[in-house]
TrEMBL record, chain A:
<dbReference type="InterPro" id="IPR036010">
    <property type="entry name" value="2Fe-2S_ferredoxin-like_sf"/>
</dbReference>
<dbReference type="Pfam" id="PF00111">
    <property type="entry name" value="Fer2"/>
</dbReference>
<dbReference type="GO" id="GO:0051537">
    <property type="term" value="F:2 iron, 2 sulfur cluster binding"/>
</dbReference>
<dbReference type="InterPro" id="IPR012675">
    <property type="entry name" value="Beta-grasp_dom_sf"/>
</dbReference>
<feature type="domain" description="2Fe-2S ferredoxin-type">
    <location>
        <begin position="4"/>
        <end position="94"/>
    </location>
</feature>
<protein>
    <submittedName>
        <fullName>2Fe-2S iron-sulfur cluster binding domain-containing protein</fullName>
    </submittedName>
</protein>
<dbReference type="InterPro" id="IPR006058">
    <property type="entry name" value="2Fe2S_fd_BS"/>
</dbReference>
<dbReference type="InterPro" id="IPR001041">
    <property type="entry name" value="2Fe-2S_ferredoxin-type"/>
</dbReference>
Amino acid sequence: MAKAKVTFEDIEQTVNVPAGTRVIEVSEKIGAGIIYGCREGDCGTCMMHVTDGWNNLTEPSVLEEKILKENMASRHDRLACQAQVLGDCTVKPA
Amino acid sequence: MNGDIDVSRHCNAVEFADGVYWIGALDPTLRTFDIILSTANGTTYNAYLIRGSEGVAVVDTVKENFSDEFFARLESEVDYSEIKVIVLNHLEPDHTGALPELMRRAPQAKLHISQRATSMLKALLKPSSDAFAYTTVNTGDRVSLGDRTLSFLHTPFLHWPDTQCTYLEEEGILFSGDVFGCHYCDKRLFNDRVGDFRFSFDYYYAHIMRPFKKHVIDALKLIEPLTLKQIAPTHGPILRERPRRYVTHYRELSTSSLTREIGSDDHSLVIFYMSSYGNTARMAEEISEGAGGVAGVRVSIYDLEGGETEPFVDLIEEADALLFGSPTINGDAVKPVWDLLSSLAVVNLKGKIGGAFGSFGWSGEAVRMIEDRMRGLKMHIPHEGMRVKLIPTEEELDECRSFGRRIAEVLIGKRRERAVIDFAYLV
Ligand SMILES: Cc1cc2nc3c(=O)[nH]c(=O)nc-3n(C[C@H](O)[C@H](O)[C@H](O)COP(=O)(O)O)c2cc1C
Ligand code: FES
Ligand SMILES: [Fe+2]
Ligand SMILES: [Fe+2]
């Protein structure tokens, strides 16, 4: 299966993951600083900032776009419970 | 003025600045609020009315079962058709209970809420929400009532993500929402008339605002530059006598005192342990030795047997790293450890460094369980905990020192685990 590297900037840790893995699955296991609430794309708690490889995450759904907007996301912010890793990227808590 | 205020004896609006009225409700018998808060003398749900030359604004409403009192006070002063603006500083049901009915009676009024409140509005007011016209406002946005102007301050997380404050420019009144509030019910309504509410004010801060200190400081940056003649919160007395004292007090409560003690360059690492035969205690001492040897790290060590939860919570709030030591007793960590770990809802632990250690006899579950709990509290666990079977050997004590040192190095940012891990190896 295709692999990708996701780097958590706050704890300076990189993890090799199978393509399609959700960021939440990885960040929770290694104890990165992104925090979670509902875990289903509704509360906006898990907002993260993508510092590198913005295009290597799955496109945000209409619902995610809406929650991002409501939470005043800046450019290149995503919900970690929704975004799936497709290629190398670097993220940190928003 | 107001020498004989007693709002429990009537259901009229109470004017406290030119054209500005309190139209809230008293709830003197309430003893528990939101499950976590107790109050020895009830609370108030404060709502306000502002009359401008070109329309009326209502700021917040009350809890649903207090609607009658709210509507009676409102009707004593205005007609529903005059209401042009409804501001919701916070959508919790204690302030939006009367909203659906108010919207029904004043359908022309436009809701002014924060951006983050929009999804809550729908979730809170489910069936009736479709018809609500609202506009979202942010810091700097203003709405005019003719000779009166309301401006908005984006102050999220001063209880919920949606919270905001509203400022009446011409009168210098800040409608602050839950901020600067307290659960204190007094029919005399104003801070210079009511009983001694200092305890309630601090208690409320400690339970509602403290977990969000960072947000409090952000909000204070917006509030402090304002000319403040009065502060009108959603609970407790209206602060009309020297309101700035309360702003200063919030500033003090939100500022770290440890930084002043040890200086902002030092990092604080606190070790808590419990030990029946002294094995876990030995480990704690050696870990402390190891960590304390790293320049820039100040170690404090506490035996949980000799302390109470409350002051320990204070220590934890200001610590940069926390280590918990517990023997395994009946397959679990000991109760004082859990007591402390379950009392941390009032502090923000996100990103603090954590670790666990302990002696055990045969199964040794305690260390892993503590680590899991710390992860649940959003702490970062950089190193797997130290477990020692029964009495630690010299070699194991060496390892304890090394464990302490490694944690301390992560703390000062010297040691970074840069290696790429494979997802499959993460458990
Ligand atoms: C009542 C009791 C129950 C215990 N239960 C367990 C257990 O379930 N699993 C285990 O690994 N050790 C168990 N132990 C052993 C202790 O963890 C062990 O003696 C340890 O070294 C005590 O460390 P301390 O001196 O720091 O208290 C138990 C000990 C006692 C006295
Ligand atoms: S955790 Fe709630 S949106 Fe991701
Ligand atoms: Fe609230
Ligand atoms: Fe409230």
